[in-house]
Amino acid sequence: MKKIAIIPARSGSKGLPHKNILNLYGKPLIAWTIEAAVKSNQFDKIIVSTDSKQYGKISEEYGAEVIYRDESISNDTASTYDVLKDLFSKVDVSYIDYFVLLQPTSPFRNAEHINEAIKLYEKNYYQYDTLVSVTEAHKSSDLIKPLDKDRSLKYFNNDFSNYKRQQYHEYEPNGAIYISKIQSYLKIKQFLGSQGIAYIMNEDDSIDIDGRNDFELAYNVISRKNIIDETRKIVKERILEKKQLEISVKHPITLIGNSFFDNWNVEKICNKKVNNWGIKNATSKLYLKYFLNDISFDELGEYILVMFGINELLCGNSINDTVSSINHCIEKIQTYHPHKIIFVNMLNVNGRVDIGNELVNECKQCFSKSIKADKIIQTDDLNDEFGWLNKDYTDDGLYLNAKGYDFLLNIIEKGILNNL
Questions:
Q1: Are residues 343 and 363 in contact, defined by beta-carbon separation less than 8 angstroms?
Q2: Residue 7: what are its φ and ψ, rounded to 5°?
Q3: Rounded to an integer, what is the distance from CA 325 to the centroid of its chain?
Q4: Pairwise CA distance, residues 302 & 71, whole Å
Q5: Residue 106: how many CB atoms within 10 A of its CB?
């Protein structure tokens, strides 16, 4: 289908002056949206509607066409409808099937989101006129009411005696993607309503920058996203080190996994020497791609201990994807030479903000059912009476200290003694 992208970018923001061209991690805010539209490879035209020559110059530099809007619709009272109606009067839209509105204040809506939303919309093109991107709301609409000058809570007149936040799953438009057929939009003058379908996005990618605090939040999100790229670099460097240090001599037991093994200064398990092939920060997918696909399996020991999990969850991988990639690692090993595969289940955490034990326990249960190992060793004995990683065994709530590793060794030796 034929479509154009429209990016509205007024210069007169009062809350945060010139927010649409402020620098976000090395480029103007509006550039994030233009680049996403270009990368999606979906549009006949990518048009920026603006009242500013400065905005126009920046937009053209990043690959967009520019349509300058009339002064009468360049103030903060102009509606989206006014802006779009003006643009449609200046551009030939007779040949397109629909348009996609992309606000420049949504920097983390990327080409993949655009492609997914377009695919969803075109699949339902004859049933719905519009599409709006949404994210799950932080608060129930029952808790959002007006206040009069007297500050009375009279509008909060629902029965909240049994209110539980977890019972409510409501969604709100996140401002990232709006799609509509032109005539339908000009008729109803909005995107929301029964004629529309929702495209759901996660919280991080739904950030809508309006003020200074939003910019600071965006920087935090970028830092988290960049960790994944940085991790890949660290993993590659550590693999080179390991290949020089560990693989030259074959021992009966080989450790395969991430930081939990790499940080472990263990020489023997069940009185048998160990090759520690743990790679710091590695996910199972990175381990397979950069390590298992590029080694000689003659150096593997007869018994293989495998441990993955925490890094997968910290990088945002789903449990099902994690199980699949771990099993791919195991299958890769077994393809070349049959070994005894012993999987060590992941550890719980203690008071971490980046990951909770609810998710960890869900993952552990799934591992116990689905990992294709000869034996699975559980690590729950490292927990305290509340199901948290015992504080005596960790200094940061995530990784083990020396005392924790001594206890882990005891657990593993008990678990595999009958198999050796």
A1: no
A2: -120, 105
A3: 18
A4: 76
A5: 24
